[in-house]
Design a protein that fits this description.
Elements (H helix, E strand, L loop, with lengths): L3 E6 L5 E2 L15 E5 L1 H5 L4 H6 L30 E3 L1 H7 L3 E6 L10 H13 L5 E4 L3 H10 L7 E5 L4 H10 L2 E5 L3 H15 L2 E2 L7 H6 L1 H9 L7 E5 L4 H15 L8 E7 L4 H8 L23 H11 L2 E5 L1 H15 L5 H15 L8 E6 L7 H6 L11 H10 L4
Parallel strand pairs: 5-13, 6-7, 6-9, 7-8, 10-11, 10-13, 11-12
Antiparallel strand pairs: 1-2, 1-3, 4-5
The structure holds pyridoxal-5'-phosphate (PLP) and zinc ion (ZN).
Zinc ion binds next to loops.
Protein backbone atom coordinates (compact mmCIF):
# COMPACT_ATOMS: atom_id res chain seq x y z
CA UNK A 1 0.00 0.00 0.00
CA UNK A 2 1.68 3.18 -1.19
CA UNK A 3 0.45 5.49 1.56
CA UNK A 4 1.96 3.25 4.28
CA UNK A 5 5.70 3.20 4.92
CA UNK A 6 5.52 0.34 7.37
CA UNK A 7 5.05 -0.67 10.99
CA UNK A 8 7.15 0.65 13.87
CA UNK A 9 7.49 -1.09 17.23
CA UNK A 10 6.20 1.00 20.11
CA UNK A 11 8.84 -0.51 22.41
CA UNK A 12 12.07 -1.06 20.43
CA UNK A 13 11.36 1.23 17.43
CA UNK A 14 12.33 -1.46 14.89
CA UNK A 15 10.58 -0.99 11.57
CA UNK A 16 8.97 -3.61 9.39
CA UNK A 17 7.15 -3.68 6.09
CA UNK A 18 3.42 -4.45 6.22
CA UNK A 19 4.20 -7.87 4.78
CA UNK A 20 6.91 -8.62 7.35
CA UNK A 21 4.79 -8.38 10.49
CA UNK A 22 1.18 -9.31 11.05
CA UNK A 23 0.59 -8.60 14.74
CA UNK A 24 3.29 -7.71 17.27
CA UNK A 25 7.00 -6.95 16.84
CA UNK A 26 8.92 -9.95 15.46
CA UNK A 27 11.95 -8.76 17.44
CA UNK A 28 10.65 -7.89 20.95
CA UNK A 29 6.88 -8.70 20.92
CA UNK A 30 6.00 -5.07 21.53
CA UNK A 31 2.94 -3.64 19.77
CA UNK A 32 3.33 -2.09 16.34
CA UNK A 33 2.18 1.27 15.06
CA UNK A 34 1.38 2.15 11.45
CA UNK A 35 3.65 4.74 9.83
CA UNK A 36 2.24 6.62 6.84
CA UNK A 37 3.98 8.46 4.07
CA UNK A 38 2.69 11.76 5.42
CA UNK A 39 4.07 13.76 2.52
CA UNK A 40 2.08 11.67 0.07
CA UNK A 41 -1.12 11.77 2.17
CA UNK A 42 -0.85 15.56 2.46
CA UNK A 43 -1.44 15.79 -1.27
CA UNK A 44 -4.98 14.49 -0.95
CA UNK A 45 -6.02 15.22 2.65
CA UNK A 46 -6.42 18.84 3.72
CA UNK A 47 -8.77 20.97 5.77
CA UNK A 48 -10.39 21.96 2.53
CA UNK A 49 -10.85 18.40 1.25
CA UNK A 50 -12.39 17.43 4.59
CA UNK A 51 -14.74 20.38 4.53
CA UNK A 52 -15.97 19.38 1.09
CA UNK A 53 -16.43 15.73 2.10
CA UNK A 54 -20.07 14.93 2.80
CA UNK A 55 -19.36 11.50 4.31
CA UNK A 56 -20.52 11.28 7.92
CA UNK A 57 -18.43 8.54 9.41
CA UNK A 58 -14.85 7.51 9.91
CA UNK A 59 -14.30 6.58 6.26
CA UNK A 60 -13.90 10.28 5.54
CA UNK A 61 -10.34 9.61 6.78
CA UNK A 62 -9.71 6.71 4.40
CA UNK A 63 -6.55 8.42 3.07
CA UNK A 64 -4.92 7.86 6.44
CA UNK A 65 -6.36 4.43 7.28
CA UNK A 66 -4.68 1.07 6.53
CA UNK A 67 -7.06 0.14 3.71
CA UNK A 68 -6.55 0.06 -0.02
CA UNK A 69 -10.14 0.96 -0.81
CA UNK A 70 -13.76 0.75 0.22
CA UNK A 71 -14.53 -2.86 -0.70
CA UNK A 72 -14.51 -4.23 2.86
CA UNK A 73 -16.27 -1.40 4.62
CA UNK A 74 -19.19 -2.60 6.80
CA UNK A 75 -22.41 -0.92 5.60
CA UNK A 76 -23.27 0.91 8.84
CA UNK A 77 -22.36 4.35 10.14
CA UNK A 78 -19.33 4.17 12.40
CA UNK A 79 -17.94 7.35 13.92
CA UNK A 80 -18.89 10.98 13.38
CA UNK A 81 -20.61 10.75 16.73
CA UNK A 82 -22.03 13.92 18.31
CA UNK A 83 -19.87 16.39 20.18
CA UNK A 84 -21.88 18.43 22.66
CA UNK A 85 -20.92 21.66 24.37
CA UNK A 86 -21.94 20.49 27.84
CA UNK A 87 -22.79 23.86 29.37
CA UNK A 88 -24.79 22.68 32.32
CA UNK A 89 -22.39 19.94 33.29
CA UNK A 90 -19.47 22.32 32.83
CA UNK A 91 -21.07 24.98 35.00
CA UNK A 92 -21.48 22.46 37.81
CA UNK A 93 -17.71 21.87 37.72
CA UNK A 94 -16.79 25.53 37.18
CA UNK A 95 -15.69 24.95 33.58
CA UNK A 96 -16.62 27.21 30.68
CA UNK A 97 -15.56 24.99 27.81
CA UNK A 98 -16.56 21.43 28.50
CA UNK A 99 -17.35 19.18 25.55
CA UNK A 100 -18.73 15.67 25.54
CA UNK A 101 -18.07 13.23 22.71
CA UNK A 102 -20.81 10.61 22.78
CA UNK A 103 -19.31 7.45 21.32
CA UNK A 104 -22.13 5.39 22.74
CA UNK A 105 -23.86 6.51 19.54
CA UNK A 106 -22.05 3.97 17.39
CA UNK A 107 -23.80 0.96 15.76
CA UNK A 108 -23.07 -1.44 18.63
CA UNK A 109 -23.14 1.42 21.17
CA UNK A 110 -19.46 1.73 22.02
CA UNK A 111 -16.21 3.31 20.89
CA UNK A 112 -14.96 -0.17 19.92
CA UNK A 113 -16.83 0.03 16.61
CA UNK A 114 -14.11 2.31 15.28
CA UNK A 115 -11.51 -0.44 15.71
CA UNK A 116 -13.73 -3.34 14.65
CA UNK A 117 -14.82 -1.55 11.48
CA UNK A 118 -11.24 -1.02 10.36
CA UNK A 119 -10.13 -4.55 11.29
CA UNK A 120 -13.17 -6.08 9.55
CA UNK A 121 -12.50 -4.05 6.41
CA UNK A 122 -8.83 -4.99 6.49
CA UNK A 123 -9.67 -8.69 6.95
CA UNK A 124 -11.89 -8.52 3.88
CA UNK A 125 -9.19 -6.86 1.78
CA UNK A 126 -6.49 -9.31 2.76
CA UNK A 127 -8.74 -12.34 2.24
CA UNK A 128 -8.98 -13.43 5.86
CA UNK A 129 -12.07 -15.51 6.43
CA UNK A 130 -12.68 -16.15 10.10
CA UNK A 131 -11.99 -13.26 12.47
CA UNK A 132 -11.67 -13.89 16.20
CA UNK A 133 -11.42 -11.65 19.21
CA UNK A 134 -11.38 -11.61 22.99
CA UNK A 135 -13.14 -8.91 24.89
CA UNK A 136 -14.74 -7.83 28.14
CA UNK A 137 -17.82 -7.42 25.93
CA UNK A 138 -17.76 -4.27 23.83
CA UNK A 139 -14.98 -5.17 21.41
CA UNK A 140 -16.73 -8.47 20.86
CA UNK A 141 -20.16 -6.92 20.38
CA UNK A 142 -18.72 -4.49 17.87
CA UNK A 143 -16.82 -7.18 15.95
CA UNK A 144 -20.01 -9.26 15.81
CA UNK A 145 -21.92 -6.22 14.53
CA UNK A 146 -19.33 -5.37 11.85
CA UNK A 147 -19.12 -9.00 10.66
CA UNK A 148 -22.87 -9.72 10.83
CA UNK A 149 -23.42 -9.54 7.07
CA UNK A 150 -20.36 -11.63 6.19
CA UNK A 151 -20.48 -15.28 5.33
CA UNK A 152 -17.97 -16.44 7.96
CA UNK A 153 -19.11 -15.94 11.53
CA UNK A 154 -16.66 -14.28 13.92
CA UNK A 155 -15.44 -16.28 16.91
CA UNK A 156 -15.67 -14.46 20.21
CA UNK A 157 -14.05 -15.21 23.57
CA UNK A 158 -15.69 -13.43 26.52
CA UNK A 159 -15.45 -13.79 30.28
CA UNK A 160 -18.48 -15.49 31.79
CA UNK A 161 -19.14 -12.34 33.82
CA UNK A 162 -19.79 -10.10 30.77
CA UNK A 163 -23.00 -8.04 31.28
CA UNK A 164 -26.06 -9.75 29.73
CA UNK A 165 -26.72 -6.90 27.26
CA UNK A 166 -23.31 -7.39 25.68
CA UNK A 167 -23.83 -11.16 25.47
CA UNK A 168 -27.22 -10.56 23.88
CA UNK A 169 -25.59 -8.39 21.22
CA UNK A 170 -23.09 -11.14 20.39
CA UNK A 171 -25.77 -13.77 20.03
CA UNK A 172 -28.17 -11.55 18.10
CA UNK A 173 -25.50 -10.58 15.57
CA UNK A 174 -24.79 -14.27 15.06
CA UNK A 175 -21.26 -14.66 16.41
CA UNK A 176 -19.92 -17.96 17.71
CA UNK A 177 -19.63 -17.12 21.39
CA UNK A 178 -17.18 -18.93 23.64
CA UNK A 179 -17.76 -18.11 27.29
CA UNK A 180 -14.48 -18.36 29.20
CA UNK A 181 -14.37 -19.38 32.83
CA UNK A 182 -12.03 -16.58 33.76
CA UNK A 183 -11.42 -12.87 33.30
CA UNK A 184 -10.68 -10.87 30.15
CA UNK A 185 -7.01 -11.78 30.43
CA UNK A 186 -7.70 -15.51 30.15
CA UNK A 187 -10.06 -14.91 27.23
CA UNK A 188 -7.35 -12.89 25.48
CA UNK A 189 -4.76 -15.65 25.81
CA UNK A 190 -7.14 -18.42 24.79
CA UNK A 191 -8.15 -16.43 21.71
CA UNK A 192 -4.52 -16.04 20.72
CA UNK A 193 -3.88 -19.77 21.06
CA UNK A 194 -6.94 -20.57 18.96
CA UNK A 195 -5.90 -18.12 16.26
CA UNK A 196 -2.44 -19.71 16.13
CA UNK A 197 -3.94 -23.18 15.82
CA UNK A 198 -6.75 -22.47 13.33
CA UNK A 199 -5.22 -19.59 11.40
CA UNK A 200 -8.07 -17.22 12.29
CA UNK A 201 -7.43 -13.50 12.01
CA UNK A 202 -7.01 -12.04 15.49
CA UNK A 203 -8.66 -8.71 16.29
CA UNK A 204 -7.32 -8.58 19.83
CA UNK A 205 -6.92 -5.04 21.09
CA UNK A 206 -3.40 -3.67 20.74
CA UNK A 207 -1.95 -6.97 19.52
CA UNK A 208 -3.62 -6.26 16.18
CA UNK A 209 -1.94 -3.00 15.07
CA UNK A 210 -5.05 -1.80 13.23
CA UNK A 211 -7.30 -1.41 16.27
CA UNK A 212 -5.38 1.76 17.19
CA UNK A 213 -5.81 3.00 13.62
CA UNK A 214 -9.58 2.79 13.93
CA UNK A 215 -9.60 4.41 17.33
CA UNK A 216 -7.52 7.37 16.23
CA UNK A 217 -10.42 8.62 14.11
CA UNK A 218 -12.10 9.98 17.24
CA UNK A 219 -9.25 12.50 17.54
CA UNK A 220 -9.71 13.49 13.90
CA UNK A 221 -13.39 14.15 14.51
CA UNK A 222 -12.65 16.22 17.61
CA UNK A 223 -10.35 18.48 15.57
CA UNK A 224 -12.98 18.99 12.91
CA UNK A 225 -15.95 19.31 15.27
CA UNK A 226 -14.11 21.92 17.35
CA UNK A 227 -13.41 23.84 14.16
CA UNK A 228 -9.71 23.00 14.39
CA UNK A 229 -9.34 24.49 17.88
CA UNK A 230 -7.52 21.61 19.53
CA UNK A 231 -8.69 21.19 23.16
CA UNK A 232 -6.36 21.64 26.12
CA UNK A 233 -7.31 18.35 27.76
CA UNK A 234 -8.99 15.11 26.70
CA UNK A 235 -10.26 12.81 29.47
CA UNK A 236 -10.86 9.16 28.63
CA UNK A 237 -11.26 5.98 30.63
CA UNK A 238 -8.48 3.45 30.24
CA UNK A 239 -8.25 -0.33 30.50
CA UNK A 240 -5.96 -1.83 27.86
CA UNK A 241 -4.81 1.66 26.87
CA UNK A 242 -5.69 1.28 23.20
CA UNK A 243 -8.22 4.10 23.07
CA UNK A 244 -5.87 6.61 24.65
CA UNK A 245 -2.94 5.51 22.48
CA UNK A 246 -5.32 5.72 19.50
CA UNK A 247 -6.36 9.26 20.39
CA UNK A 248 -2.70 10.23 20.62
CA UNK A 249 -1.99 8.59 17.25
CA UNK A 250 -4.84 10.59 15.75
CA UNK A 251 -3.66 13.92 17.06
CA UNK A 252 -0.04 13.26 16.05
CA UNK A 253 -1.10 12.00 12.60
CA UNK A 254 -2.98 15.26 12.05
CA UNK A 255 0.02 17.21 13.24
CA UNK A 256 2.32 15.27 10.91
CA UNK A 257 -0.11 16.03 8.09
CA UNK A 258 0.15 19.74 8.88
CA UNK A 259 -3.55 19.96 9.79
CA UNK A 260 -3.01 21.09 13.41
CA UNK A 261 -0.05 22.60 15.21
CA UNK A 262 -1.14 22.17 18.79
CA UNK A 263 -1.61 18.90 20.68
CA UNK A 264 -3.84 18.27 23.70
CA UNK A 265 -2.78 16.81 27.02
CA UNK A 266 -4.37 13.39 27.45
CA UNK A 267 -5.74 12.24 30.78
CA UNK A 268 -6.11 8.54 31.57
CA UNK A 269 -8.91 7.81 33.99
CA UNK A 270 -8.60 4.38 35.59
CA UNK A 271 -10.52 2.51 38.24
CA UNK A 272 -8.64 2.14 41.53
CA UNK A 273 -8.99 -1.62 41.21
CA UNK A 274 -7.55 -1.79 37.70
CA UNK A 275 -4.70 0.71 37.68
CA UNK A 276 -1.79 -0.96 35.88
CA UNK A 277 -1.23 1.91 33.45
CA UNK A 278 -1.48 4.56 36.16
CA UNK A 279 1.05 2.63 38.25
CA UNK A 280 3.51 2.41 35.37
CA UNK A 281 3.05 6.10 34.58
CA UNK A 282 3.70 7.05 38.21
CA UNK A 283 6.65 4.73 38.79
CA UNK A 284 8.27 5.27 35.43
CA UNK A 285 8.78 1.50 35.16
CA UNK A 286 7.40 -1.17 32.86
CA UNK A 287 3.76 -2.29 32.95
CA UNK A 288 3.18 -4.77 35.76
CA UNK A 289 -0.05 -6.76 35.97
CA UNK A 290 -2.55 -6.10 38.75
CA UNK A 291 -5.55 -8.11 39.86
CA UNK A 292 -8.05 -6.10 37.81
CA UNK A 293 -11.38 -5.64 39.58
CA UNK A 294 -13.92 -2.87 39.08
CA UNK A 295 -17.62 -2.36 38.51
CA UNK A 296 -16.65 -0.78 35.18
CA UNK A 297 -16.25 -4.11 33.34
CA UNK A 298 -14.94 -2.49 30.14
CA UNK A 299 -11.85 -1.20 31.94
CA UNK A 300 -11.34 -4.22 34.18
CA UNK A 301 -7.95 -5.37 32.94
CA UNK A 302 -5.12 -7.10 34.78
CA UNK A 303 -2.44 -6.85 32.08
CA UNK A 304 -3.09 -3.91 29.72
CA UNK A 305 -2.54 -5.00 26.13
CA UNK A 306 -1.50 -1.59 24.85
CA UNK A 307 0.06 -0.34 28.06
CA UNK A 308 3.42 0.82 26.72
CA UNK A 309 1.79 2.93 24.01
CA UNK A 310 -0.65 4.37 26.56
CA UNK A 311 2.10 5.43 28.95
CA UNK A 312 3.96 6.92 25.99
CA UNK A 313 0.85 8.91 25.04
CA UNK A 314 0.61 10.30 28.57
CA UNK A 315 4.28 11.26 28.64
CA UNK A 316 4.50 12.73 25.16
CA UNK A 317 1.32 14.73 25.57
CA UNK A 318 2.31 16.06 28.99
CA UNK A 319 -0.85 14.51 30.37
CA UNK A 320 -1.48 12.53 33.52
CA UNK A 321 -3.45 9.66 35.05
CA UNK A 322 -6.16 9.84 37.67
CA UNK A 323 -7.79 7.08 39.70
CA UNK A 324 -11.47 6.90 40.62
CA UNK A 325 -13.28 4.56 42.98
CA UNK A 326 -16.18 2.34 41.95
CA UNK A 327 -18.44 4.58 44.03
CA UNK A 328 -17.31 7.66 42.09
CA UNK A 329 -17.80 5.80 38.81
CA UNK A 330 -21.37 4.79 39.68
CA UNK A 331 -22.23 8.29 40.94
CA UNK A 332 -21.02 9.70 37.63
CA UNK A 333 -23.73 7.80 35.72
CA UNK A 334 -26.74 9.84 36.93
CA UNK A 335 -24.58 12.99 37.07
CA UNK A 336 -23.80 12.67 33.35
CA UNK A 337 -27.35 11.71 32.48
CA UNK A 338 -28.90 14.61 34.38
CA UNK A 339 -26.20 17.15 33.49
CA UNK A 340 -25.77 16.32 29.81
CA UNK A 341 -28.59 13.96 28.79
CA UNK A 342 -26.13 11.18 28.05
CA UNK A 343 -26.58 7.72 29.56
CA UNK A 344 -23.16 6.06 29.89
CA UNK A 345 -22.08 2.63 30.98
CA UNK A 346 -19.77 2.65 34.03
CA UNK A 347 -16.55 2.79 31.97
CA UNK A 348 -17.99 5.65 29.91
CA UNK A 349 -18.99 7.61 32.99
CA UNK A 350 -15.56 7.04 34.55
CA UNK A 351 -14.05 9.76 32.35
CA UNK A 352 -16.45 12.25 33.89
CA UNK A 353 -15.70 10.98 37.40
CA UNK A 354 -12.02 11.66 36.73
CA UNK A 355 -12.73 15.13 35.44
CA UNK A 356 -14.92 15.96 38.44
CA UNK A 357 -12.06 14.96 40.71
CA UNK A 358 -9.52 17.07 38.81
CA UNK A 359 -11.84 20.08 38.65
CA UNK A 360 -12.37 19.89 42.42
CA UNK A 361 -8.62 19.71 43.09
CA UNK A 362 -7.84 22.63 40.77
CA UNK A 363 -5.95 20.48 38.28
CA UNK A 364 -8.32 21.69 35.58
CA UNK A 365 -9.06 25.40 35.29
CA UNK A 366 -12.13 27.43 34.44
CA UNK A 367 -10.94 28.46 30.98
CA UNK A 368 -9.39 25.17 29.90
CA UNK A 369 -11.13 23.61 26.97
CA UNK A 370 -11.84 20.05 28.01
CA UNK A 371 -13.29 17.05 26.19
CA UNK A 372 -14.64 13.98 27.94
CA UNK A 373 -15.03 10.95 25.73
CA UNK A 374 -18.03 8.85 26.71
CA UNK A 375 -16.98 5.46 25.39
CA UNK A 376 -20.09 3.33 25.80
CA UNK A 377 -23.87 3.48 26.22
CA UNK A 378 -25.61 3.00 29.54
CA UNK A 379 -27.93 0.42 28.02
CA UNK A 380 -24.95 -1.94 28.01
CA UNK A 381 -25.15 -2.40 31.76
CA UNK A 382 -28.42 -1.35 33.32
CA UNK A 383 -27.81 -3.33 36.51
CA UNK A 384 -25.01 -0.93 37.49
CA UNK A 385 -27.08 2.12 36.56
CA UNK A 386 -30.05 0.92 38.63
CA UNK A 387 -27.86 0.70 41.72
CA UNK A 388 -27.54 4.46 41.87
CA UNK A 389 -30.65 5.81 40.17
CA UNK A 390 -33.47 5.19 42.63
CA UNK A 391 -36.63 3.18 42.12
CA UNK A 392 -40.03 3.88 40.60
CA UNK A 393 -42.84 4.95 42.95
CA UNK A 394 -45.31 2.09 43.40
CA UNK A 395 -48.76 3.60 42.98
CA UNK A 396 -50.87 0.54 42.31
CA UNK A 397 -53.87 1.97 40.46
CA UNK A 398 -54.60 4.61 43.05
CA UNK A 399 -55.04 8.28 42.21
CA UNK A 400 -54.64 9.08 45.89
CA UNK A 401 -51.11 7.69 45.81
CA UNK A 402 -50.35 9.67 42.64
CA UNK A 403 -51.38 12.82 44.56
CA UNK A 404 -49.16 11.87 47.49
CA UNK A 405 -46.14 11.30 45.21
CA UNK A 406 -46.77 14.59 43.40
CA UNK A 407 -46.88 16.42 46.72
CA UNK A 408 -43.78 14.70 48.07
CA UNK A 409 -41.83 15.35 44.86
CA UNK A 410 -43.15 18.95 44.76
CA UNK A 411 -44.55 18.51 41.24
CA UNK A 412 -47.07 21.18 40.40
C1 LIG B 1 -12.74 -0.70 25.83
C2 LIG B 1 -13.39 0.37 26.57
C3 LIG B 1 -12.67 1.33 27.29
C4 LIG B 1 -11.20 1.32 27.46
O1 LIG B 1 -10.43 1.23 26.28
P1 LIG B 1 -8.99 0.60 26.35
O2 LIG B 1 -8.47 0.65 24.98
O3 LIG B 1 -9.16 -0.81 26.86
O4 LIG B 1 -8.19 1.42 27.31
C5 LIG B 1 -13.39 2.30 27.93
N1 LIG B 1 -14.73 2.35 27.89
C6 LIG B 1 -15.45 1.46 27.20
C7 LIG B 1 -16.93 1.57 27.22
C8 LIG B 1 -14.81 0.43 26.53
O5 LIG B 1 -15.55 -0.46 25.87
ZN1 LIG C 1 10.08 -4.33 19.13
Amino acid sequence: MKKIEGLRCVECASEFSLAAAKYDCPRCRGNLSVVYDYKAVRKTLSRRSLKADTERGLWRYLDVLPLAGRSGIPPVQVGWTPLYHANRLGAALGLKKLYLKDDGRNPSASFKDRASAVVAARAFETGEKTVAGASTGNAAASLACMMAQREAKPVIFVPRTAPPAKLAQLLVFGAVVLSVDGAYDQAFDLCRQACDEFGWYNRNTGYNPFTREGKKTCAFELCEQLDWKVPDLVFVSVGDGNIISGLWKGFTDFRDLGLIDKLPRLVAVQAEGSAAITNAWKNGGPIRPVDGRTVADSISVSLPRDGAAAVKALKESGGFAVLVSDREILAAIPALARGASVFAEPAGAAAYAGLAKCAASGKVRENDSVVIVVTGSGLKDIASAMKVSGRPHEVGTSMATVRRVAAREKIS
